[in-house]
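I am writing to request your help with a piece of structural work I have in hand. What I wish to show you is a protein chain and, alongside it, a tokenised description of its three-dimensional fold. Could you please explain, in whatever detail you think fit, how the structure tokens follow from the sequence? You will find the record immediately after this paragraph.
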Amino acid sequence: MNAIKNNKPRILLVEDELVVQKIHRELLEKIGYAVDTASTGAEALEKSSRGYNLIFMDLGLPDIGGVQVAKIIRAHEKNGNRVPIIGLTAFPIEEVQSACINAGMDCVYNKPISPEKLAEIITEYDKSSLMN
């Protein structure tokens, strides 16, 4: 895989809207991260065990919602290998954000997310875990 060869921190971007996925992927790659994508919850679950440093999780996926995907990922993590999961939602309702946190997401941001905010999030998690 390209991410392993280049020794870059790896991000899984879970987003079903292909235009949004492309924009976020390009931004993340531009600031130096290796990015894999998933368009469905099932695909995200399959890929999540590949050793990512960070997961950006859309909530409104066509098959399994992002909240449920986060719960399943957390249930399968072992021995403290906890990957940060950042929820992305177009519905900034308090109940939605609470459900995300209760599912094990580290935080939740409203879409659309600006390039500056994306860089800010990456910087925050870069300090804490991406380079480990």
In short: The longest helix spans residues 115-130. Confidence is low (pLDDT under 50) at residues 1-5. The chain is about 45% helix and 20% strand. The two ends are 19 Å apart (CA to CA).
